[in-house]
Design brief:
The chain is built from 6 helices and 6 strands; from the N terminus they run H-H-E-E-E-H-E-H-E-H-E-H. It is α/β, with parallel strands linked by helices and 169 residues long. The longest helix has 19 residues, at 3-21. It starts with a helix and ends with a helix.
Length: 169
C-alpha cells in the first residue's frame, strides 16, 4: 500500500468514527483524539518513552519519590481511558494503602485524552482522602469535568509545589 493509499484509508476510518460519535460537527478535541488514535492503530504515530515511567499503551505514569511530607505525587501523561487506566489505579491503591500518605497530588497537565474512567478514578481518590490536581487542565479532562459539573469538587493548582502547600478544604 502506498503512502497516499494509507493516508486515504486512515482518513476514511477517521471520518467513519466521527460520523458514528458526532452526527453533526465534531469538537476539535474529539477530532484531534480520533486522528492520533487512528494513526496509532495504523502504526504511523510514534510515542516517546522515558526510562522511569510505567507504560501501557498510550499513557505514561510517574510516581515521584516521597519527600517525607505525607504527600504522594503522581504525574500522568498521555491518554487515560478504561483500557489504559490500570497503572494509575495501581498507583492510587499504593498511595491509599500507605498510612503515611495524607494527600495525593495528581499532575494532569500532560494528559492528552481523558474520559469518564479517569473522572471515576479521580473521584475514588478524592473520596478516600485529600486530592489536589495540578493543571492546567487539558481540554478533554476539562470538558468531562464541565459536562458532569464536577469541576468545583476538585482543588486545582498551577504547580506541584503549590499543591504540596495548599491548605486542606
Amino acid at each position: 500500500m502506498s503512502d497516499a493509499e494509507a493516508a486515504q484509508a486512515i482518513a476514511a476510518r477517521i471520518a467513519s468514527y466521527l460520523a458514528a460519535i458526532h452526527p453533526g460537527e465534531p469538537n476539535p478535541d474529539d477530532l484531534a483524539w480520533a486522528i492520533v488514535h487512528t494513526l496509532k492503530q495504523a502504526g504511523l504515530y510514534g510515542h516517546s518513552t522515558h526510562s522511569s515511567t510505567h507504560e501501557r499503551g498510550e499513557q505514561q505514569l510517574l510516581t515521584l519519590p516521597d519527600q517525607n511530607d505525607a504527600i504522594r505525587v503522581i504525574v500522568c501523561a498521555g491518554e487515560f481511558d478504561q483500557r489504559t487506566l490500570g497503572p494509575l489505579h495501581e498507583a492510587g491503591d499504593a498511595a491509599l494503602a500507605d498510612p503515611t500518605i495524607e494527600r495525593i497530588v495528581l499532575d494532569v497537565s500532560r494528559i492528552t485524552f481523558a474520559d469518564s474512567s479517569m473522572l471515576n478514578e479521580m473521584f475514588r481518590l478524592r473520596r478516600a482522602g485529600d486530592l489536589v490536581l495540578v493543571g492546567p487542565l487539558p481540554p478533554s479532562l476539562a470538558r468531562v469535568l464541565e459536562l458532569t459539573q464536577a469541576l468545583p469538587l476538585f482543588r486545582i493548582t498551577h504547580s506541584i509545589d503549590e499543591a504540596r502547600t495548599t491548605t486542606t478544604r
